[in-house]
Amino acid sequence: MNTIPYFPGCSLKDTATGFESSAQFVMETLGLRLQELERWNCCGTVTSLTTDDLMHHLASVRNLVRVQDLHESELVALCSMCYNTLARTAQRINADPVERDKINQFMDRESSYEGTVEVRHLLQVLRDRIGWETLAQATPITLEGLKVACYYGCTLLRPKEAAIDNTEKPTIMSEAMAAAGATSVPFPFAGECCGTYQVVDRRDLSIERSFRVIQSALRAGANVIATACPLCQHNLQEAQKELGHVQGLADIEIVYFTELLAAAMGMDPQRLPEGLNVLIQQTAEAQTGWGGS
Fold this sequence. Notes:
single chain; alpha/beta; Glutathione S-transferase Yfyf (Class Pi), Chain A, domain 2; Rossmann fold; four-stranded parallel sheet
């Protein structure tokens, strides 16, 4: 089976294990194994790039070096924040030999980075390397009837140079959902911020912003929100718990896009969110007209 170097990041080994396991299932079903870097470190997170300090790119460059040492030129990430941080670092350091020389002076025991690694998000790999037609052929369980609000958040679309799709009208996640038989419903807050790390010291603000995202998806007719960011999922679910008394708010599932794809590919339901399994079953029964009185 072909492999591709893969950076998991911190959350996927802790609070977002379902994101990783579903992605691994999807890719192996498609004949491409995610090969986790043997030695990886935190990317440094996107907040470290808010100041123009070359040293804030050092953590990410160390991971790029490990890809280079495998004689590979491509690294795939799942977490949208990890993708954004790694991709922006690669773009900057790859394009500037002077900065690359400066940062190589801090590599310690690492090899010098040669500026040859490109960072891609899993959605880009599905679109550009696998193809939607191939993805559709690998989904025997249709998600027809599911109405999915594809939530991109900030870091898949901004800044423009790191965007995985059109920043104003992205379709890449919607196309993935369509390949699995689901219907994507456009909603105005698809690219809005969930409140990100403000949940730590301004939880009220994070709850408010996340509530607006969920409310926008509900008004568009969605019964599930698909995301690619562990922090986005956390904040949306926290808002759902906090404001569950708001009519309809608790009725929408919030899952990773890979969990939807994995469900369509036949992943063991016990490895998927219970609420998603129930929703898929209810939707299937509604589509066939079966379900009892």
